[in-house]
Amino acid sequence: MAALAPLLAALLVAAAAASAQAEPAGAPDQCTPDVLSRIAFGAGVGSYQTEGSAQGRAPTIWDTFSAASPSKIADGSNAKVAADFVRRYKGDVQLMRQLKMKHFRFSISWARLLPGAKSGSAPDAAAAAYYSSLIDELLAAGIQPLVVLYQWDLPQSLQDDYDGFLSPKIVPDFVHFADTAFRLFGDRVKTWLTFIEPAVFCNQQYGSGIWAPGVANGEAGRFACGKHVLLAHAAAAAAYNSKYRAAQNGALSFSTLVTWAEPASGSEEDAAAAQNKLDADVGWFLDPIFKGDYPASLRAAKGDALPPFTPSEAASLRGSLDFVAANCFTARFVSAGDAGKPGAWRESKVSPVNGSAVGAASGLAWLDVAPWGQGRALAYLQMRYGDPQLFISSSGVMAPGENKLQGAAALKDAFRTDYYRSYLNEVCRAARGGARVIGWSAWSFMDAWEWTEGFNTKFGIVHVDYSSPSLERAPKASALWLAANVFSRGAPAVAHAA
Length: 498
Ligand code: NOJ
Hints:
By secondary structure, the protein is an alpha/beta fold. Helices cover about 40% and strands about 15% of the residues. It has one domain (about 5-20, about 30-490): TIM Barrel (Alpha-Beta Barrel). The chain has helices at about 5-20, 35, 45-50, 60-70, 85-100, 110-115, 125-140, 155-160, 170-185, 200-205, 220-250, 270-290, 295-300, 310-315, 370-385, 415-430, 475-485; strands at about 40-45, 105, 145-150, 190-195, 250-255, 260-265, 325, 330-335, 345-350, 360, 370, 390-395, 435-445, 460-465, 475. The longest helix is centred in the middle third of the chain and has 31 residues, at about 220-250. The chain is globular, with a radius of gyration of 21 Å. 1-deoxynojirimycin binds next to loops. InterPro entries: GH, Glyco_hydro_1.
């Protein structure tokens, strides 16, 4: 375990350096004390992106992909060591405590907890002890553990044996993984996310194939993956309900990427096109749970490519989310697509009507700063899905050029603070207007390995010096701003409806 004292000393120096260029004081305007006190605020990471200690687990699809095709990773890197979180978590939890975070959201590596991966396989004792200790450290620091089961790191053996999420065989294996986690950790974990952004990983992992495992099966691939994710989620929720809920009293969801679709004009055609995009991105996963089937526009557009649910499958999906978890990063203008094609739309970052941009550019081509879109997204989820409890499970950005900065300059992230100030203002505005917002997670707690972007993309509120042997951590200015104005003023834990 890394020694704690030098780390904390380094942090204090770093914090002093960062606060030398202090942000304007105070919470966002809409974030009055009573609104903040209803929402639990924290930050998250993904296991594969931070854990390292690859030798302590079975191989995953990303190990295979980054080894076989380093040219497909922007900097040719891999995540064998990453932020070395498995060996450094105790120091990181102390930093979270100093930052007054109220929860920490992390994922469990399936290949670490269950090296055999399949139904019936036994948990690895060291892995179980590690996750248990992480949870205990968090609780001792007054930080709620919020656990994700699958953040994109499929055990390679399941890909080799039956093509992973392309096969219904994934369902019982995922349920065994979920059941193992509920059994080992559910006495202390009360908020679970089964999957992160299924639309994104199904599209990229089994549709376009630009991500591991690199399976380019187009529409058939992404929709088969989507169906099996939904069935796996529902079956895991059923296991939780029948075996654990009474004693553990937790809540389950999966997180959905919600990129707001703003009609480019006031025309009916553009409004319908924007709805088509929301149906295709969001309704694909949430409508089957809340409404019993895929959205009509998606059915019309995709026909037989969209695998239907049997009546018993549809019944298993209904009501299997306790709350809606949304990852909100950006927005798009949407206009009518090819008029002859059902379900079509065109999207852009610049309005085709008046040339205005959705927002300022960030350091990432896909992410422009559009806080107004977050406000609309929350109102949409509230209205379409019957006023559910809402959890913003990821919100974050990288500043232009941030990945080139080093030393003290890398801690001066006023751009990120401004992003959080404006996005949180919309979250608080929605909550003041009656949206049942129960939680909010910054993405991410620390700079990490960003899939095909490698270490080139930095989302952290905590800087990790990947050039230092000790992978030194230091809070950025945004972390200090969040600590003073948001983390410290929120609810002590996520309050799920009874
Ligand atoms: C959500 C993903 O789950 C996460 O791994 C990724 O780092 C962020 N989106 C940002 O792209």
